[in-house]
Design a protein that fits this description.
3 helices; 4 strands; four-stranded antiparallel beta sheet; elongated; 108 residues; single chain; alpha+beta
Amino acid sequence: MLYKFKSKATGDLIMLEPNGRRILQIIGKYSPDGKGILLPEQMPAAIAALQAAIAKEDADRKAAQEDAHARGERAPEDEAVSLHQRATPLIDMLRRCLQANKEVVWGV
């Protein structure tokens, strides 16, 4: 399954199901039916939630690397694509939609 985020203010944004589900869970908009809407007034909170999750992931990764270094072990491997890389296009989309006062929908 794919998530296709659509808005009248931007082009479409497509994500694979696991990545889209994770992002929707972070912003509190996950629904098992795969459909939803994010209104302009909800976008600042969604952007803040994504930025907080990115900061937490970055801090956790840095702490794990420092911990491994302190024990004299090899640092754990990073994910191939970080949350920061996956969420940045959606954050940009949300900012543009907020500025244009347009909603973002998916699964419709």
